[in-house]
Amino acid sequence: MLKLEELRGQKLFITGGTGFIGKWLLESFVSENDRQALGAEAWVLTRDAQAFKREMPELAAHPSVHFVTGDVTDFRFPDQSFSHVIHGAASANAAENEAQPLETSRTIIQGTERVLDLARKSGTKRLLLLSSGAIYGKDLPDLIHEDSLLGPNPLDPRSAYGESKRMAELLCAIAAKTTGMEVKIARIFALAGPRLPLNGSFAVGNFIRDALTGGPIRIAGDGSPLRSYLYAGDMTRWLWTLLFQAPSLRPYNVGSDETFSILEIARLVARETERALGKKIEIEVKQKADPSKTPSRYIPSIERARHELGLQATVKLTEAVQRMIDWERRQK
User: What pTM was computed for the model?
Assistant: First the structure.
């Protein structure tokens, strides 16, 4: 059960509310709002409310959900005051961000400035920034801790997403220091769960796409990089907990430390899809592994969230993949 009592009779503003993370947050908000009779309202910024209404009509039609149409960089402020803000508007698609680094930076930085202006105007009490593990860069240690001083290469345009998320954190820190607003920082790593895009930046989603179309599952590299995935249901609980309970300006990694190689993930997806479909799924690896090469890692330490807030990753990747496959098959 989620503890959203602090939202009783309050108004929440969400950016990125129609994306993967936002949908999970919004579904949980509506469910708990009804179950606990909170009388809360969620105002959701989106560039295309009609598309969201077609995709999730029952959720979009709920009386506690209101839409604000506009771009995060220049949307018109609704004539409301918001006690809580969750700011997550930004594309997590690596290909899009690499193709349009200036647009990526503009959206994240100007969007954060605009949302902070809304929060100042509203006298917002708590703001949760959905930041990213990308702020740590690519040359990473075994486990990434929140107090790491690593960062992206500022001379590489592919760093636009990570560098801009760093700037977003700085803007929020300035706002917290100058207004007294509590700012909570969630540095989100890779996720898994129903509704995860199957043509995005997360290998597990792309592998499920390949497998459900009969295979083969295609690995672009040698399969050696090490990754982890937090289930979206756990993520949802973590983010609400951060909003209400985390100390201001103390960042928390949001992810899993259950580690798999890319090849192991592909094999897991193949095995679970074979079980569901009753047919063999092949795996194609583009490059041969070099045993002398140290595999790249993108694994967060979650000790801070575990010890300070009592948060756990409760759903293992095998179960997450099973749920994703079952959900995708039901959509056919």
Answer: 0.95
